[in-house]
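Re: that chain you flagged

S.,

Sorry for the slow reply, it's been a week of failed gels. I finally had a moment to sit down with the sequence you sent. For the record, here it is as I used it:
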Amino acid sequence: MVDAALNPNAEPAVVLTYAWDRLLIDPVPGPRGPANFTGLKALTPTVSAVPRDARPVAPAGSTLPRLAAELPHTFALIDPNSGVRGITQQLQELTEHLAPDAIELLDVGGDILAKGDEPTLRSPLGDALTLAACCQLSVPVRLLIAGPGLDGELPADQLRERLGPKLLSLTAEHTKPVSGVLEWHPSEATAMLAATARGARGLCEVRDSGLSVPLTDEGPTLHQADLDDALSRNELARAILSTTSLEEAEQYSREICGYSEIDYERNKAAWLDNRTAEPIENTAALLTQLDQFEAEASARGATHTTFRRITEALGYDGSQRLQLRELLLQHRPEQYDAPLWHITSKPA
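Prediction finished late last night. Pasting the structure tokens below so you have them in one place:
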């Protein structure tokens, strides 16, 4: 979406990204490295592309091969297993290999601008790793923030003075290149970014915890923030500048932020392993469950939710998310505010 807005007539971008899907997709905690895939294509000695025919090695899962199949961009894999020094080397090699017109570090939500002690912060490690690496490159990097507050971590009010100038607001037209992807991809932040670009406004419940995220006119905005300011503010990013392993960076996160998001994933994965989700067999019972959930969510002020939130709130697991989505769209298509679910029930 951002590429379509900023570079409408340019060649498809090379997107260097993590294979770090949440447990709905990948039951293995933490990010995946090259050893967790077959069919990768080497771009440089330390960077591999994920083509459409690549496959994650079981039991791991990944959305990257399907993204590569459905979008024109090249998806290259960030491997964080060698810490910030490893990611910096990957970026340097890729920059030398591609000689790109621009390097843009994009964060949806804005938690990359965190200090590290904010009580609402939940997933600082991935952002800190890439921020620390980008700040060590010899070429300019533009830090972009899309959808301030939409990841549900730092509120937009708290981010406003850190954002820098607004570049543009995404529109429904900008979402068209990814409209098909949004029908299946589980990213809640991206779903809300697209929904606000299409005009959705209200309060959206997300995640297993039912976090409430405002959908406002700020939702579809894109800002340019100062990279050096972000590093000077981000205590975790500064601490891990010289790390040579993911484990080392993770320990700094525990010390500075008080937790590691991978520990949370480990704990949740263990809980999910011990739980047996019920099969979706009775549509009438499912819709009754949905009605109860919607009434309770409406009482909390919610106007929208995600299919991930519905799946977990009703007690199903990630493998059932798309089946559940298909059933809901079949029986109540009028509530689909693509790619979100519009809550129409009245409070109980």
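What I noticed first: The chain has a mean pLDDT of 95.

Talk soon,
D.
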